[in-house]
Amino acid sequence: MNIVPTAIPEVLIIEPRVFGDARGFFLETWNAAAFAAAGLDLRFVQDNHSRSQKGVLRGLHFQNPGPQGKLVRVTRGAVFDVAVDLRKSSPHFGRWVGVELSETNKRMLWIPEGFAHGFLTLEDDTDFLYKCTAPYLPQSEQTLAWDDPAVGIDWPLAGLAATLSDKDRRGLALGEVPTFP
Predict the structure, then answer these.
(1) What is the reported pTM?
(2) How far are the Cα atoms of 90, 124, 130, 164 from residue 52, in angstroms, in the given order?
(3) How many angstroms separate the CA atoms of 96 and 101, rounded?
(4) Residues 135, 178: Cα–Cα separation, whole Å
(5) CA dist., res. 169 & res. 77, Å (int)
(6) Is 98 exposed, middle or buried (0-12, 13-18, 19+ CB in 10 A)?
(7) What are the structural domains of the chain?
(8) Nearest to 144 by CA among 83, 54, 99
(9) What per-residue confidence (pLDDT) applies to 13?
(10) So what's the pLDDT on residue 67?
(11) In the predicted model, what is the mean pLDDT of the chain?
(12) Which of 99, 119, 133, 138 is buried deepest, with most CB atoms within 10 A?
């Protein structure tokens, strides 16, 4: 696999080796030994899968306490995936990175603990899968406002109105969310 750093060094694009022929393709999406050899010695405790229509924006979610690291990917469709650094001690605090993940590019994104995460679906019937390093704790779930001007995410809405859940409409500003050390 190829690991590509982003503007925030701890957030990593992972490009798996894809073996294709006339029958289709094969790729490894998770191999503990290979990831550990690449410096990502991770233990996952939960897998999640969501399906969304074009224009659905989910996030920006995080847990505090009980933060989760996430390895995310798309198996059908495409998303614009975003991670926001919520670590007060980080030189990147409050900054974001965004990456397109799709069934075509087969990229994955590693989002470590201490980040808010969200995505905008770019195609109908997009399947989004992710592995988590900690279990979901509803009492610890937090939502950073997807449109907080202090963060300034450049969502590729192209004239679309984002479809949001009530929880995501009520997201808090960067100055109001519980951050990490």
Answers:
(1) 0.96
(2) 32, 7, 14, 11
(3) 16
(4) 19
(5) 24
(6) buried
(7) 2-18+29-169 (2.60.120.10)
(8) 83
(9) 98
(10) 98
(11) 97
(12) 119
